Amino acid sequence: MADDIKPRIRVPQNPKKGEVIEIKTLITHPMESGQRKDAAGQTVPRSIVNALNVTYNGKPVFAAKLEPAISANPYMSFFLRVEESGTLAFEWKDDEGKSHKSEQKITLAA
Amino acid sequence: MMHPINVAEKSDVGFARIPEGETDVRPGFVGFTTRGFLAAVICVATLAAASAQTPPAPIVVDGPAHQAPWVRYRDWSQTTWPTYNTLSERTRTPVATGKPIDIVGEIAGDPKKGQDLAFARSRGGGCLACHVMGPASQETPGNAGPDLSEIGSAGRPDSYLYNYIHDPRHLNAASSMPPWGAHGFYNDEEIRHMVAFLKTLKTPARFRSALDDPEKRPKPVEDRDALDPFVNPAVDRIDAGRALFAKAGPGGKSCVSCHADEKKFAGWAVTMPRWEPRMKKMLGVEEFIFRHASATTGEDYRMQSTGNTDLSVFLHSLSNGLPINVDISSADAKPVYDLGKTLFETKIGQFNFSCGDCHDPNRGGNKWLRGQFVGESKGQLDHFPLWRTSRGAGQVWDVRKRLQWCNVQVRADVLPPDVPEYDALELYLKAQSQGYKLTAPNIRH
Predict the structure, then answer these.
(1) Does B15 score more than 70 pLDDT?
(2) How far apart are CA A55 and CA A77, in angstroms?
């Protein structure tokens, strides 16, 4: 399943300095809870995205710990006050120890 | 075993006939190893720009396009209704005798028991699904049928009320109402209680708000941005389908090997279903995907498998914004369209509903079944496949699955998705959306 994982980020373009903007993110992931059994009656091993860390210009701005009860393709949004142009960096970590990264630049309106 | 059509034999544009000995013998598979050149040449323009000169796309004509044997989805009702019509078995349902049941004198029933029966959802949805029933209608009632709030002072004899519930076909051939008694939903005693209840209905309904009143309730509008992946999880399936499109099958070739430019599919899905002379039937997008992929890449994309639906979403999305434009007038298409029209008016299932009973705007269409809005048949096929929100997260349905679902809802046995009856119904319904612009995948309740 790991090759299906695809992060999406949505960030408003050209916010004003000091504006509070909504950041939306969605990652395509099955979020296998570890509770389910397959057709043969075997437990399907847990495989979830368990953490999201977001930094802006290297400084942490948002972090979340995800649990098995969270749905497939988790969608999160949060608000951020932007004082400077920069790069919003997302990093998700999964149960396999892999990390999925994605970045989005924010440029303040002139 | 499935036999691929030999494209060279069927084409009339001068391809060399392939010597017998070179035919790939694997089932369901046109081998690229021996015929790579031919396949590559033929595939160039088959789908996107079908014209009289273009050779037909290779397809596997034999065998079902679905998992065989066909089984109903595990999370659907597993009840079967062998004594009632289906879309293919149209003479199963017992014909109404034409004779009302003799009721002598006044019916003695318990109005309270009758009200409980009429309001209960457990047996076919209850009367409130379609009728407003006076001030006691505590739940959001529907209006697909007439308002019965004052039926008790309408001067109907008991035998009329009894027979209308038991089997309305005796009294009103145009009625859409199920034969509640004749089809075994309620027994004689229960109908007597319901008649007693109807006789107590003498005052108009009062509603606390416009939302409770089916005549004033605003029609729901689906105005979400269906193509925003943050709104519609089915949008992810476009990329999943595109990945499958580029994925090599057992023969080493992918769809992209022949169809390098996906833009050429713009305008294809909106013309399906289309007549397939080699099979003497219509093929919708989903059946075509299976039959064509089986004959070319060798990948097995059975109808309603995840892969098939993903490819269907992807291929439909390439025609987004283009008007539905199906052929219903050619000599081949016309009879299929006519069959679709017949099937739309064919009563099926224990409920004895035709599609038109609920989806014709002169009957149940654009009205309410309890709190659920029933759309008219027009404009329904410009948005499939879609995310069906009421069936859980991430459920993406093609149109055949939706038709099958409808069949189960009227308590008729479902048919496998590739039967000619669904071809015909899909064509007829798609023709109702002729000119409407496609937006797929979409969102519906």
Answers:
(1) no
(2) 14
A71–B contact, CB cutoff 8 A = yes
- Residue whose tokens read 């329904």: B380
Q: Is B229 on the interface with A (CB under 8 A)?
A: yes
Phi and psi, residue B174, nearest 5°: -85, -5
Distance from CA of B227 to the nearest CA of A (A): 14
Report the residue from B229, B393, B394 with minimal CB separation from A26: B229
The reply to whether A10 touches chain B by the CB within 8 Å rule is yes
**Is some CB atom of chain A closer than 8 A to the CB atom of B244?**
no
d(CA B229, CA B224): 11
Name which CATH class applies to B61-97+219-445. mainly alpha
Range(s) within chain B of domains with CATH label 1.10.760.10: 61-97+219-445, 111-199
Q: Could you tell me the residue range of the domain that residue A65 belongs to?
A: 2-106
Q: Which residues of A touch B233 (CB under 8 A)?
A: 73
Q: How many inter-chain contacts (A to B, CB under 8 Å) are there?
A: 18
Q: Is the CB of A71 less than 8 angstroms away from the CB of B239? A: no
Tens of pLDDT, residues B152-195: 999 999 999 999 999 999 899 889 999 999 999 999 999 999 99
Q: What is the pLDDT of residues A55-74, one digit of tens each?
A: 999 999 999 999 999 988 89
- Per the prediction, chain B carries an average pLDDT of 86
8 Å CB contact between B400 and B426: yes
| Rounded Cα distance, B12 and B9, in Å | 8
Beta pairing partners, A64:
A52
Count of domains for chain A: 1
Give me the CATH number covering residue A75.
Answer: 2.60.40.10
